[in-house]
Amino acid sequence: MKKRYDLDGWTLGWLGLVTAFFAAFLFYPVSFMLRRAFGTGGEFTLEYFGLWLASPLQREALWNSTAIALLTTGFTTLLALPLAHGLTRYRFRGQALLGGLLLVPLIMPPFVGAIGLKQLLARFGSVNLLLMDLGWLPRDQPIDWLGAGGFWGIVLLQTLSLYPIMFLNLSAALANVDPALREAAQNLGASGSRVFRTVTLPLILPGWFAGAIIVFIWAFTDLGTPLIFGYARVVPVQIFDSITELNTNPMGYALVVVVLVLTLVLFLISKRLLAGRRYEMLARGHTAGGEADATPRQTLWIWLVGGGVLALALLPHLAVVTHSLAERWFLTVLPDAWTGANYGELWGQGLTALSIRNSLFYASLSALLDLVLGVAIAWLLTRRRIPLAGLLDALAMLPLALPGLVLAFGYVAGFDFAVPWLNPRENPTLLLIVSYSVRRLPYIVRSAYAGFQQTSVTLEEASANLGASPFRTLRKITLPLVMANLVAGTLLTFAFAMLEVSDSLILAMREQYAPITKMIYLLLGRIEPNAPSVACALGVVGMGLLALSLWIARRLLGRRLGQLFRA
Are both 52-280+287-331 and 342-567 of the same fold? Predict the structure, then answer.
């Protein structure tokens, strides 16, 4: 029987809008980069990749980025696995509170935290100076805590910032393990470690892969943290430096294609590894019975481990808050003097105030654009039978696998023509809004999709039977029923757009268009004595806006908020 599709006017209109958006702002920049990477003269060549492989600097950058990503993935697993096990295996006082607190680093961007960590762990940072004042360290022999020019500092900061993503995925996977399987293994005489190794671990592999892929790609493509540490021998910084010579040196295109291919290969490998194995469990409805009451000693250990991890994760950002209140903080354990004047400089007519207004403007419009596109995509996928629905769903989720670094590079290269409002070298406003929107589109799609799935179509069918158009039914019936999901998803897209790093650093080429993150980077490069403190004050404002948005979203979505951060 031939499948019938819903291809009425509204369906075709929404489908055309979504297709045009993806074609212009996803397919075009990616295809442009691919064409340029394999030859600029119209002939296919691998010469640029040969030049890239022949360069010792580029090989070292690739090795360093890979090592950072692998180490970050490994360390986040070591941190998140025991925490996830403790919070899903045991019931204890304050369980929900600790689970929420462990997610707080999600609102603390590594880019901002890098400023605080550098202040604490530099050769003459607060930690070394404190050890010197206590007489535990010679003043002429400071410890290189950041290691190898900042390499280990990057790994540490990425680990402390990204472990919540791994924690969310592992928690979901562990919560879904049927406790009857563990009990059966124990009844057969298996020890606790063997049960975990042979039963639990294989069953949570899908959750681990989902988290590991996101963490690896995030750590590999992070641009802001290496820039703050001045660590240039990584792939993202090499791509960033190549933007100034796009028309004369094609090496940047080769680098971007390598990152793009690596990202896609990782996702394909993960799906191939998981596709051939079965992880289904019976009695899914009884998994909640696997929790046991924790003893006072176990409760204490869970809180000590969780609290210790959280304290370490928040320490760099507490240093940022401290720095924002410092009149001067140089070669001392704590600031010499305190002042609120740094926040005063954020408001008025200066570039810092303009950067806040720019971020609010860009983030608001990108959130509005995401809302329209997200509702359209979710409506098409849940309320209409359309051809290639699976492809549309995959495209909506593709930005999760597409680093912002790659997309921003594609916009700079692909839209470098004589249309000022489309050329980021002249006016990046439109492309900043679009890039923010593309990067966060999966959040609103997932949120709207979940809302539509949980809403019965009966009321919509009744509305249609009474003669209402699909648009009127959507506006009067469906959207009010899923409003909490839409508001929460829109707030998330707005909040994360406010502190988007890669897109902002690459696309905002002129100071008057700089958003918060680009202005922070520019301030850190200035010679004014209070410039770092003002940069930290900007970072605190950004974190505050992000925290407020996430708090409201949490109130609206509850535990479903975590679903938006899972692969």
Answer: yes
| Domain range summary for the chain, segments of one domain joined by + | 52-280+287-331, 342-567
Name the nearest CA neighbour of 371 among 360, 363, 359: 363
- Calpha distance 3→501 (Å, rounded): 45
Q: How high does pLDDT run on average in the chain? A: 82
Alpha helices in 325-350 (DSSP H): 341-344
Count CB-CB contacts under 10 A for residue 369. Answer: 20
Tell me the C-alpha distance between 235 and 223, whole Å: 9
pLDDT at 74: 94
Tokens representing 41 are 């003269």
For residue 143, what is the DSSP state?
-
Secondary structure (3-state) at 91: strand
CA dihedral 529, 342, 507, 230 (to 10 degrees): 40
Identify the three-state secondary structure at position 49: helix
pLDDT higher than threshold 60 for residue 102: yes
The SS3 of residue 131 is helix
Q: Tell me the Ramachandran region of residue 558: left when phi exceeds 0, alpha when psi lies from -120 to 50, beta otherwise.
A: left
Band of pLDDT at residue 6, cut at 50, 70 and 90 = low
Q: Residue 102 burial (CB < 10 Å; 0-12/13-18/19+)?
A: buried
* Of 246, 86, 115, residue with least CA distance to 540: 115
User: Residue 204's pLDDT band (boundaries 50, 70, 90)?
Assistant: confident
Which of 295-304, 373-382, 415-424, 467-476 is predicted least confidently?
Answer: 467-476
Residue-wise pLDDT tens digits, 545-559:
877 776 776 666 555
Q: How far apart are CA 430 and CA 453, in angstroms?
A: 33
Least confident of 128-142, 460-474, 513-527: 460-474
- Secondary structure letter of residue 512 according to DSSP: G
Q: 121: how many CB neighbours lie within 10 A of its CB?
A: 24
Query: Could you tell me if 420 and 11 are in contact, meaning their C-beta atoms sit under 8 angstroms apart?
Result: no
Which pTM value belongs to this model?
Answer: 0.84
Greater model confidence, 68 or 456: 68
Find, among 23, 61, 337, 312, the residue nearest to 163 by Cα: 312
Domain 52-280+287-331 class, CATH top level: mainly alpha
Alpha-carbon span 99 to 554, nearest angstrom? 13
Distances 42 to 35, 45, 72 between C-alpha atoms, Å: 9, 9, 40
What H or E segment, with its residue span, contains residue 326?
strand 326-328
Contact 363, 498 (CB under 8 A): yes
CATH topology of domain 342-567: MetI-like fold (1.10.3720)
